[in-house]
Design brief:
By secondary structure, this protein is mostly beta strands. The protein has three helices and 27 strands.
Length: 804
Amino acid sequence: MNLRNALLALALAATLPFATAQADPFTFQGFLEQAGTPLNGSANLAFKLYDADTAGSQIGSTLSANAWPVAAGVFSIDLDFTGVVFTGAPRWLQVEVNGTPLAGRIAVQPAPLAASANALRGFNVLGSTPSSGQVLKWNGAAWAPAAESGGGTYSAGNGLSLSGTVFSVNYAGSGAANTASRSDHDHYGDAWSGNSAFNALQVFNQNPGVGTGAIAAFNSSPDSESKGLFGQSTAGYGVVGFGRVGTRGSSNVAGGIGVTGISFANSGAGVGVEARGASPDGFALKAVSSATTGSAIAVYGETGSADGVAVRGNATSTGSGATTGVYGSSLSTNGAGVRGSGRTGVSGQGSAYGVFGVATDASGAGVQGEAQHASGYSKGVLGRVVSPQGVGVFGENNASAGVAYGVLGNTDSPDGVAVFGDAAGGGIGVRGAGETGMEAEGTKDGLIASTTGGDEATAVMAVAAHPIAATYGVQAMVASPAAIGVYVINTATSGNAYGVAAATGSSGGTAIYGLAPGGASGSPIGVRGETGAAGGYGLYGVNTATAAPAIALGAVSSADGAVAAEIRALGAGNAKAIDALSSGTGGTAHALRARLTNAASTGDAIYAYANSASAKAARFGNSSGTAVTLAGGSSALEASGNAIIAGDLGVFGTLSKGGGSFKIDHPLDPANKFLLHSFVESPDMMNVYNGNIITDARGYATIDLPDWFEALNRDFRYQLTVIGTFAQAIVSKKVEHNRFEIRSSRPGIEVSWQVTGIRKDAWAEKHRIPVEVQKAPAERGKYLHPELYGVPAGKRIGVVPSGK
């Protein structure tokens, strides 16, 4: 039978016995419905015990009853959870019907007829009222109130006394064990009271003899964890020593330890060993190794924590003195005041620190090295590595704000060097990396680097290794208006000596980038080149690429109204602002190329201006070819004055003009006069064809036109004029197959003819000339010829005021 959980409703009435140590069988009765109708037939039942009403853990095994009879919705079954112990803790019964758990577990409650509370396991409990501290004890006949006893036997040793169950310390002291280890007036035991002002044990030895001890503790156990003397305190000090040598530990075992301090605290700043000294010139902790050979270590620190510190020095003084967290001193000619070794297991990899110093004070020093000898090549801090990828000295500052220094060097000598890097083997003297690779400050020289290496030696190398961010290899910053951010000089007097040489490996990179953000006024310069040599170049660009386009010098300006490049020749005579030369022998070599690619721009790809009556703003010439080629969908060339082209002019776009004429030397007086003719103007793109012809004996004449005539023209118009006599002439047949026919009223008549057509070629159809157009917003209020309308010349379109 398939019964769904959502269709089942359960009515439960259970009678459970009083909870005992071992579960007894009990009867469970339930009521089942299906779709609101009591169930008749049978069902597969399962019962499970849990320790919670939801989730939790099952207790004991599952009881199953398959094909169990159900009559009128009621079933009854005896449940025996053999082996389950009822301890009084809550129990919950889960019922499953046909494999489906019913919603909600049922709490197992005590039966109505429980055993009497006046009996324990069937044995009587006396009804007398117990006193404070008493418990129930079996007196042989019943459970009765009685005093609690430990049931053990106690005895007091030397120096102790026992009164009932209470131990006390003998103040007077007796026995050889006590009198041999102390003087009579120096033994106190008052700390049993819990008062923190007293000591649990305080022993003095007033015998001045050498080698005597107030306490001598020996442990002959071979166990490595056994202790000769062990002191422990939950909040204070386990062992405290006072005197010339407060606490001293010694070990004559090869791997032994003189003193071990252990803090078992799982949290907080636990201290294994703490040493304190009150003398202004004393030592809180002094470790001496008397060995004269080998790698003897006076102080050795070890930590197993991933973020732990093996040895830490902390100078907590808030005064103005020169406190030192860790101070090391060595008198050996080859010794080291402080030497750290960082090891990371067998692999030898990872971030293990040889010396790690931390200073939490605003002006403190994590590690300070001093070499106070007045002469010699001593070192304040010497970092040395043998790994080819290692770092001799590595400074790191993890502050997220402020002027945080990774490494800071300072010198008071006028000829000193704050930070000096020397790569005697051809390496790198000083290398900086990061958002700011290297920053140097100084009242004289912020940074001096030198190298005596070979061809590839580098005095200063700065590397910004981030693959995508805008990091700086070298950033120089000055605040003086006459200062120079970066000044490089090459003192060589011959050869290709570079003051600055920059290279980039990116196909879209920039070898030298100059940025002058400026403000609302002034004329800042991004990059400026200057030379005093007569044949020198202030700025010289070379592109050695053998394939076009190879650009030697490029200038870009993105500001509205800005100038990408301004070049001035201030000398007198034959000074040239631009002298462009291309020595290319083939291909499309350009001596000078200017492009204006923004479709919305109203600027000029090239703007040339001359302020002299005899000067020319621009002059183009070619001794063996085309001097100027103009192309473009807008204005390829605009001249506000007289533009003179000494060679041929080819226009492969639309030519727009205020007027047009030819100008030649006058045929009758070529030395003194010009002859000018105006062009024929038309609102259409019109072609004109004409000629003369004589009609035949019948008065007919056929005029043949070029074979491309109809391919080029449409909308034909005809003009006929009779010459020499009075007669009539008509067009008898229109143009067809590139010819048309005329007929005169008389034979043998000379007729002058003219045919016009409107261009219909592909270029003309694509670039039809509009007759009327609105001026662009930048041109409104301005004129091509303002003087003709009584308007100032400054209103001329395309004219830039002088000096711009």
